[in-house]
Amino acid sequence: MDTLYRASPKDGVAWVTGASSGIGLGTALELARRGFTVIVSARRLEALQEVAARAEGLPGRIIPYAADVTDKAALIALVADVEERYGPIVLCFLNAGIYFPLRAKPFDDAGFKQTFEVNVFGTINGLAAILPKMTDRGRGQIAINASVAGYGGLPRAAAYSGSKAALIVMAESLKMDTDALGITLQIVNPGFVKTPLTDKNDHPMPFLMELDDASRLICDGFERGGFEITFPWQLATILKFLRILPYRAYFALLRAATGWPPR
Predict the structure, then answer these.
(1) Contacting residues for 259 by C-beta, under 8 A, at least 6 apart
(2) Does 160 qualify as catalytic in the annotation?
(3) Of 151, 160, 247, 250, which one is the catalytic site residue?
(4) Which fold has domain 13-258?
(5) Domain boundaries of the chain, sorted by first residue
(6) How far apart are CA 141 and CA 185, in angstroms?
(7) Which end of the chain has the smaller Cβ count within 10 Å, N or C?
(8) Chain-centre distance of CA 33, in angstroms?
(9) pLDDT tens digits, one per residue of 213-235
(10) For residue range 32-65, what is the model confidence (pLDDT) as tens digits?
């Protein structure tokens, strides 16, 4: 049993980035169901206001803030304003991310750069905004949304898999420090969840989950503790097994499973 801190609504507020749609939206609503005041941020204020309206009647509430994760100064200002108005942020879910199907031909370097700018450096900007606050208090909980796609390179996901692998390894390394600081650091590695991101896919998505189910599992993981929150277990187990194989076997099995590249 993980003995590190787990956030509670009585301790302060939660903050979810990239909360205008998908996993961020679902998790924000689930946290509000569990009694949290949830700060939701994304670029589109109107979309966030719609999310806040969906929380009416729940035990908690949702408060929208427009902020782009690629703007570190905006995130620092957001955290300062939230903590002055609503109290300490005790739970932070750095969720914002994008996905483009990218291939070697044509090679879209701009798509790669944009993916890393949002998925990796956007997360780093969020950490820069919240970690000093939690460090000063000696308490807090941070979760970073990565993906099972970060376990290994997948077809058409070079930028996405690469960015998520970076987040996983970064979190593994930072945990060595955050444990000593009294801060719970977690990595969330979902499989396929029905969201606007996965709606772009034109390939089979094994063990596809509904958003509400995924959101409950994520929030259960926040309450349970432990470093990794991953689901569905079947897909996570398969991909972790593939990762320990020699590359020759890894590529052969991946090609057989995905039919990639198409003949």
Answers:
(1) none
(2) yes
(3) 160
(4) Rossmann fold (3.40.50)
(5) 13-258
(6) 6
(7) C
(8) 19
(9) 999 999 999 999 999 999 999 99
(10) 999 999 999 999 999 999 999 999 999 999 999 9
